[in-house]
Amino acid sequence: MSRLSTPVCPANGGESTELSQLYRLMNGLENCLGGGEGCVGLYGSISPRNTELMLRSLEKLTGMSGSESVLMDVGSGLCRPLIHALATGRVAACRGVEGDRV
After folding, report:
1. How far apart are CA 45 and CA 78, in angstroms?
2. Global pTM?
3. C-alpha gyration radius of the chain
């Protein structure tokens, strides 16, 4: 996956066009699967802005860096935070574990 060239979630709360398109695709997939609260185990989808805040916190608190870090998400659903982290160059690799059939 190529890295996004446009800054993500600048101070004004916006996001890159590429990331917006990626989230629209993920929303469409969620809707096709019955999305929303627990229909197929999909619930509590995190917004792009909150994902960005979480990733910035991880960078600050753990020293997470794009070249060496692996991000793990247990209960990953459609892997939104993992895809976001990869697409923005925050991590070298990701691992997602989901117990529900998605």
Report:
1. 9
2. 0.70
3. 14
